[in-house]
Amino acid sequence: MSSRQKVWLITDRLKGTSSGFGEALVKILLARGDRVVASARNLSKIQHFSSHPDSHSNLRLLQLDILSPEDTLKAAVATAVGFWGHIDALVNNAGSGQKGILEETGTSELLSQFRTNLFAPIEMTLAVLPYMRARRSGTIVMIGSRSSWKPEQSGIGMYASSKAALRTYSETLAHEIAPFSIRMLIAEPAAFRTNTFNNSPYFVDRTISDYDEIRAKSQDWYSLMHKTIKGDPVKAMEVIADVVRGEGKAAGKPWPLYLPLGDLAVSGITDKCNTMLTTVEEWKDVSSGLDMDIL
């Protein structure tokens, strides 16, 4: 293996690494000469990767359900490490986009969303970190979402809040693993042509009449969304590969903890930061001076 060749473990939930971001990234990395462990619950979903010219020497397929118990995940990671002796980069590409009005969904659906979008990536990361710490080297990539910065869209609250939690967890973890030369990358894409939301029905099991109009508009918006999305998942994953490998568009740039992907991600995050700065300035006379008086 050349000094620049990296070993990647890529996870997913919906169809394994066989659709959207996952498939795009696998093909990009193989084309660049890297080694890839592609995972799926059902290996038949990713067998077609074996037709890639570099698949014989640089691709391994791993059966993995990220919602499996901790011991099962650890065993799967050990298998992945065993292919080439280490993992340079873990890409937590798992995610599902459950949709619904928050008061109607309650906490049971929210817990399900957090299980997939927050706890599963955390558990995968915790299974990989011991191997990276031992080598004092590695990269963790968390696929977040622009919606965690701009969640003002009815129906997106469960998904957006799970991705916001993933970001804040990753921020602290990045600080804690930095002494071991392990890097964290929080990629936050806007809307791209993936199946994140298409594969999850809108929650209507417990409807509240007051929300009928809001829900209907939200359902209409989601039904039309996929037809109007302009984000190209291949271009987004090219950027991920550039950043982790330190080449292409990322050549010569310092390592970023945050990586907005897409024009709407850039504008949405900028708007939220500007809103917070304006709020702090307008309210600082109220917010400040709250320390205990010195006796």
From TrEMBL:
The family note in this entry says: Belongs to the short-chain dehydrogenases/reductases (SDR) family.
Example GO molecular function:
oxidoreductase activity
Q: Which InterPro entries match?
A: NAD(P)-bd_dom_sf, SDR_fam, SDR_oxidoreductase
Q: Which UniProt keywords apply?
A: Oxidoreductase
The superkingdom listed in its UniProt entry is Eukaryota
Q: What is this protein called?
A: NAD(P)-binding protein
Q: Does the keyword Oxidoreductase apply?
A: yes
Q: What is the lineage of its organism?
A: Eukaryota, Fungi, Dikarya, Basidiomycota, Agaricomycotina
Q: Per its UniProt record, what Pfam families does this chain match?
A: adh_short
